[in-house]
Amino acid sequence: MAKSTSSDSRLLFDMPDGPDFSMEMAARKRGLWPVAGTDEAGRGPLAGPVVAAAVVLDPDNIPDGLHDSKQLSAARREMLFARIMETAFVSVASSSSRRIDTIDIRKASLDAMRRAVAGLEVAPKLVLTDGRDVPPGLACEGRAVIKGDALSVSISAASIVAKVMRDRMMARAEETYPGYGFAVHAGYATQVHRTAIESIGPCRLHRMSFRPLRKE
């Protein structure tokens, strides 16, 4: 007798091995074109801005190897960053540590995403956003995609651009605020960073609303 099974998890052979362009093409068939992907980098660090990028890929010239930026080496991200900048419409925006402290990291991240989308040279008809939230104030339809940087190449391209741009910003910050190691850890809460804060105190780039900087 044949047996049937039921599961709320997709079978291994149904799981994609990386992001693709299927969501974008489905939107195009519905008349929603162009499609932009947006993502941010830097929600978790103790210092520095949160940086968002918005990317509209050329469907006839999508760079090979796009993936969630966290799954790529720094050298691979830099190579893909260059290819994305050559072949796609790209816009970047950021929210400073002061703005993060004022309105909270979630709102600051979403606002940076909204501004990145607004800065695109072409106006998208649909925005695919990594995560659970659609940035408020978009001038078009938005769709939140959980783990979107592993599903949509437009979102993964945005994640790469945001990560590379933020890393470069933090490397430059090391020149202005030496002693913290920003060029190495990009503001994340490593032991080296925590020790530096204890030794020389926080600087203007630190998010004073984050623990352990926040005064209870």
Number of strands: 5
Poorly predicted spans: 1-13
Write down the overall mean pLDDT.
Answer: 93
Q: Write the H/E string, N to C.
A: HEEHEHHEEHHH
Helix share, percent? 25-40%
Radius of gyration: 19 Å
Question: Which structural class matches the secondary elements?
Answer: alpha/beta
Strand order of the largest sheet: 3-2-1-4-5
Sheet-strand content, in percent, reads 5-15%
Descriptive report:
With 216 residues, this protein is α/β, with parallel strands linked by helices. Helix content is 38%, strand content 14%. The protein is built from seven helices and five strands, in the order αββαβααββααα. The chain has helices at residues 22-29, 74-87, 97-103, 105-118, 153-176, 182-185, 191-200; strands at residues 35-41, 50-56, 89-95, 126-130, 141-145. A five-stranded mixed beta sheet has the order 3-2-1-4-5, sandwiched between helices. A hairpin with an 8-residue loop joins β1 and β2. α2 (74-87) packs across α5 and α3 packs across α4. The longest helix is centred in the last third of the chain and has 24 residues, at 153-176. The relative contact order is 0.20. Residues 1-13 have low confidence and may be disordered.
